[in-house]
Design brief:
With about 110 residues, the protein is mainly beta. It is built from one helix and nine strands, in the order ββββββαβββ. It has one domain: Transthyretin/hydroxyisourate hydrolase domain (Immunoglobulin-like, Sandwich).
């Protein structure tokens, strides 16, 4: 089975996005897990082992920026990704600013 983690960095301050709420769901919208990033902006082991399939991570970006009195353009960022057959670890980082974001498959 596969494991999943994420890491959120605030590109405007160059620091981890600690305290961001993140949810994991399948494509039907069924919630599979949730959590909040730690002080290093990481959320490890969002859920138990995941079989192959398509999943969504939803980052509560507007809520996070609002808690810092920063206006932002995106109310949330949704990253949809595919876990292929086989076993492995999948890491989905998010680089974030109030008006842009970027993601990639990490290691």
């Amino acid at each position: 089975m596969n494991s999943l983690s994420t890491h959120v960095l605030d590109a405007t301050s160059g620091s981890p996005a600690a305290g961001m709420r993140i949810t994991l769901s399948d494509t039907d919208g069924t919630s599979l897990g949730a959590g909040v990033t730690d002080r290093d902006g990481r959320l490890r082991d969002i859920t138990g082992p995941l079989p192959e399939g398509v999943y969504r991570l939803v980052f509560a970006t507007a809520e996070w920026f609002a808690s810092r009195a920063i206006e932002s353009f995106y109310p949330e960022v949704t990253v949809t990704f595919r876990i292929p057959p086989g076993d492995g670890h999948f890491h989905v980082p998010l680089l974030l600013s109030p008006y842009a974001y970027s993601t990639y498959r990490g290691s």
